[in-house]
Amino acid sequence: MRIAYQDLFDAVVKILTACGENKKNAEIAAQNMCRSDARGIATHGAYLLTPIWKRVKAGQLALPTKAVLEMDSGAVAIVDGGDGLGAVAGDLAIRTAMEKAKQHGVSAVLIRNTNNIGSLACYTETAAMAGMIALMGCNAAPAMAPWGGAEAFLGTNPIAVASYTGNDCVFSADMATSVVARGKIRKAARNGERIPDNWATDEEGNFTTDPNAALNGALLPMGGPKGSALALAVDIMSGILSGASYAPDLKSFHEPEGKTGVGASMVVIDISRFQPVDNFARKMDGYMSGIKGMKKAKGFDAIYMPGEIEYNNEQQSLTEGISMDDNAVKAINEILTSIDSTPLQGK
Fold first, then answer.
1. What confidence score (pLDDT) does residue 150 get?
2. Lower CB count within 10 Å: N or C terminus of the chain?
3. Res 43 pLDDT > 90
4. Can you tell me the distance from the alpha carbon of 176 to that of 185, in angstroms, rounded to the nearest whole number?
5. What is the chain's alpha carbon radius of gyration, rounded to the nearest angstrom?
6. Short-list 160, 165, 169, CA closest to 131
7. What is the pLDDT averaged over residues 24-35?
8. Helix 308-320 with 23-38: angle, nearest 10 deg
9. H or E element: which one contains 266?
């Protein structure tokens, strides 16, 4: 089913304001969710309205979100998310980091006391489009076993890097440090599907194709010890350094189990402090053109740069509507109906 971008955006804003969020913050969060859905990242899209709704009903989400700069010193800052919507804290953090990078060349901004922050690319690409390079990490509730372990200790702890290219389609890598994002396993469980046997283990440490057994077990780190090391590094910077919760102390956002304690970290670099931005853009154009024009491996018709497929998906979604599965639309419509609002209709 395809849903018009504006229709989905309006529905998300209606639900978030009905939850107690103010309109400005609701629009910030709605933009993050809708962009994620439009780009094909449904795990960070409007389906998050369901856990948000549950948390509000359980009194475990502080709305309206009151994200503030708790510490502001030179090129660094800490944002306290006020235990509200993660997208609001993330928006304040990236805009603060960009301002500080313009002043100092490089900045570092950390976030603590927040919730699910959504797709990291939505933040790093904001800086990249402004002529910068941004790196970001975020921790999450235990879902992945460290390399050699057989129980969940680390979150999927995603990491993202985006760079200005001189074009609308920036270089944008955004990935979980696990083999797969846990949201994909939740989606498989909701849809009654099996998962590949190299994604996760069950509670006994055995590889499994059952998404429900995987949710009770542990995800595997991408690249074995390499993914495990990256996940630990993200937890150190986003959790321990920021003053947020970390490792087993974090709680899942998807069930009202208590305060999640999520933390995030971002570093932003102003390219113009190192060389003229136009010069950098020319180098990037030649760099990427060289890669895309090289001989293709067997079975490949094209070489895509990080973020290019998602960018293409977003452009298609803006004209044709956002592709959403029926279960996601049904869940959103149930909430819309409960607040006496018009349900979403497919295109």
1. 84
2. C
3. no
4. 13
5. 20
6. 165
7. 98
8. 110
9. strand 262-270
CA nearest to 142, candidates 150, 153, 132, 129: 153
Phi-psi category of 33—alpha, beta or left, where left has phi over 0 and alpha has psi -120 to 50?
alpha
321-338 pLDDT per residue, tens = 999 988 889 999 999 999
Q: How far apart are CA 138 and CA 117, in angstroms?
A: 8
In the numeric block, the tokens 């853009």 are attached to 281
Closest CA to 160 of 177, 184, 147, 144: 177
**Residue reference for tokens 């002043």:** 103
Rounded distance between C-alpha atoms, residue 10 and residue 116, angstroms: 21
In 10 A of CB 181, how many CB atoms?
20
CA dist 83 and 114 (Å) reads: 5
β-strands 2-3, 322-323: how paired?
A: antiparallel
- On whether the CB atoms of residues 58 and 50 are closer than 8 A, the answer is no
Amino acid at 311: Y
Q: What mean pLDDT value characterizes the chain?
A: 95
Predicted local distance difference test score (pLDDT) of residue 187 = 84
Residues 199, 219: Cα–Cα separation, whole Å: 6
Is the CB of residue 264 less than 8 Å from the CB of residue 93?
yes
How many Å is the maximal CA-CA distance in the chain?
Answer: 56
How far apart CA 121 and CA 126 sit, in angstroms, is 8
Burial letters 133-154, b for 16+ CB under 10 A, else e: bbbbbbbbbbbbbbbeeeebbb
Tokens encoding 227: 């993914």
Residues 184-217 pLDDT 10s? 898 899 889 999 999 999 988 899 999 999 999 9
| 124 and 162 Cβ atoms separated by less than 8 Å | yes
Measure CA of the first residue to CA of the last residue in the chain; give whole Å. 7
pLDDT in tens, 229-288: 999 999 999 999 999 999 999 999 988 999 999 999 999 999 999 999 999 999 999 999
d(CA 300, CA 317): 24
Cis peptide before 64 (omega within 30 of 0): yes
C-alpha span between 324 and 327 (Å, rounded): 8
